[in-house]
Amino acid sequence: MAEKTLNDLFLETLKDIYHAEKQIYRKLPKMAKNANSEELKNAFLTHRSETEGQIERLEQIFESLGKRAQGKPCEAMKGILEEGEEVIEDFGDSDALDAGLLAAAQTVEHYEISRYGTMKAWAKQLGMKDAEKLLDETLKEEIKTDQILSKLAESAMNPKAAAK
Ligand SMILES: [Fe+2]
Ligand SMILES: [Fe+2]
Questions:
Q1: Which of 11, 56, 108, 126 is deepest in the core (most CB within 10 A)?
Q2: What is the reported pTM?
């Protein structure tokens, strides 16, 4: 069996997050469309355009490695997004819908924060300075998005969902 390296692991994980980001990019319009609150709609749409840039950063990293940008099905993200679908189906016409959408979106962000944190550390260890910088830029956007979602959840969503 050929010896695998951290470089191989980095590439495999890059494919995983590339696929995950593309799934998120496709799902965000539906989440925005279903959200009741205008603020939440806007947060989803803003993050969708950020996600476009994040996908481009990943493509730059593939390029720097001399590899074709290629996704590998991310089962974790598929499951997280399926749970988001369930929330829309089960709570679609309730006041608790936004709270459910927020929870699903924060699960997505936490997955991304975990992935980008790990990949940034690996890029550093592998001496991939440009990749490290690109991964850090995305990591910061994911953290910021998570904070925006937390604020929305605290200020408006949860009290409203609890009131009925
Ligand atoms: Fe992302
Ligand atoms: Fe994100």
A1: 108
A2: 0.93
Parts of the chain with a pLDDT under 70: 1, 157-164
| Spacing, Cα 57 to ligand 2 middle (Å) | 13
CB neighbour list of residue 159: distance below 8 Å, 6 or more residues apart: none
First-to-last C-alpha distance (Å) of the chain? 60
How many angstroms separate the alpha carbon of residue 84 from the centre of ligand 2?
14
Between the CA of 18 and the centroid of ligand 1 the distance, in Å, is: 9
- Give the CATH fold of the 6-158 domain: Ferritin (1.20.1260)
- 18: its two tokens: 């590339």
Other beta carbons within 10 angstroms of residue 31's beta carbon come to: 26
Domain-by-domain residue ranges, the chain? Answer: 6-158
